[in-house]
Amino acid sequence: MTFDNPKLKQNADLVVPASACPFGEPVAGCPFVPFYQLNDERSQILKLIDIPQEELDKMRKFHRECMGELVKTRDVQFPKTRY
After folding, report:
1. Residue 8 CB burial class (10 angstroms; 0-12, 13-18, ≥19)
2. Which of 69, 63, 77 is nearest to 22 (CA)?
3. Is 39 helix (H, G, I), strand (E, B) or coil?
4. For residues 58 and 9, is the Cβ–Cβ distance under 8 A?
């Protein structure tokens, strides 16, 4: 399977939070924790394809609200890229 997928393109904003928490340690109840347990960036990204859009929309809402709160109290630690 490749990254050239309409669902991945539609949900590209979820790739970073699915890959790693930009704040280091995720908060309790973070819906992305199961992604981190895969410990493989490719698998983490491709897992987005299998999740119903309604659930992805809930995850997006959680992430945006979480970012809004954590940006006030934590340092951002964006994942290192391989490039």
Report:
1. middle
2. 77
3. coil
4. no
Question: And the tokens for 36?
Answer: 């981190």
Is residue 49 over pLDDT 60?
yes
Q: Indicate the domain borders of the chain.
A: 6-70
Average pLDDT, the chain: 88
Alpha carbons 26 and 16: distance in angstroms, whole number: 13
pLDDT at 17 over 90: yes
Do 3 and 45 form a contact (C-beta atoms < 8 A)?
A: yes
Neighbours of 70 (CB within 10 A): 18
